[in-house]
Design a protein that fits this description.
By secondary structure, the chain is of the alpha/beta class. The protein is built from nine helices and six strands. The strands form two sheets. Strands 1-6-5-2 form a four-stranded parallel sheet, with helices on both faces. A two-stranded antiparallel sheet has the order 3-4. Helix 9 links the parallel strand 5 and strand 6 (218-226).
Length: 229
């Protein structure tokens, strides 16, 4: 009943994750105004977009895209920060759901068999309590009707933070970090590898190299955001 919802909202007000204004019943996590102004890339519509070009000559991919532009101080950075460090799993799920609605209508992404989040090391997962990339994957899954597989791709090493490393150092930091438990599971599949933010692409590249152990696999990439240096 609406009166129950109204009472709950007085005790636990539902506010927009960006502007802090109260949400209407039809809104979730982010108000319509803030969602409208999200810096969308529309990269899924361009096969030669900057995210795809980032991996040319490095690893073989089917398609690649990111939902939002990430710049220092913009709203995307605020959303990612809350998702990763403030327990706001709902942000990742919402953004995944929104992007999934676009991707399932885009031919390069319309035949995905599995959604695979970039994994966290066990220690970081225990510390944070969840994997932010998996939350994005859950949202994508709900919109695309594709299952999330979060057990096969494993991060073996706890790498140092990538923030202030050069492109080569980032690649060196994650090379040989990932393995796949059962490559045969993905034989002939088209998988969607998902992450929160793509910068140099070193982590994604290392994941794809591990997934290449699966015969005939095709890998596409989707991220919440891309930070173009």
């Amino acid at each position: 009943m609406f009166w129950i919802e109204d009472f709950i909202s007085l005790v636990y007000p539902r506010i927009c994750a960006l502007c802090g204004n109260s949400l209407w019943r039809s809104e979730d996590v982010i108000c319509q105004k803030c969602e409208y102004h999200l810096p969308k890339t529309n990269f899924h519509l361009d096969p030669e977009n900057p995210v795809s070009r980032l991996f040319w000559g490095r690893v073989r991919i089917n398609s690649a895209a990111a939902f939002l532009h990430f710049n220092k101080g913009n709203c995307t950075q605020e959303l990612i920060h809350k998702l990763k460090y403030k327990g706001r799993k709902d942000i990742g799920i919402l953004l995944g759901n929104r992007y999934g609605l676009y991707l399932k209508q885009t031919p390069p992404f319309s035949d995905i068999s599995w959604i695979i989040p970039v994994p966290l090391h066990r220690k970081k997962f225990v510390s944070r309590g969840y994997n932010q990339s998996e939350q994005f994957g859950i949202g994508l899954s709900s919109a695309m009707g594709v299952p999330v597989e979060n057990r096969e791709l494993i991060r073996n090493l706890e790498t140092e933070t990538q923030t202030k490393k050069s492109r080569f150092k980032r690649w060196e930091n994650v090379s040989e970090t990932f393995t796949v438990r059962d490559p045969q599971k993905f034989e002939g599949s088209h998988v969607l590898l998902v992450d929160d933010v793509i910068t140099t692409g070193a982590t994604i590249e290392a994941c794809i190299q591990a997934l290449a152990a699966a015969p005939g696999i095709r890998v596409s990439i989707a991220a919440i955001a891309v930070a173009m240096n």
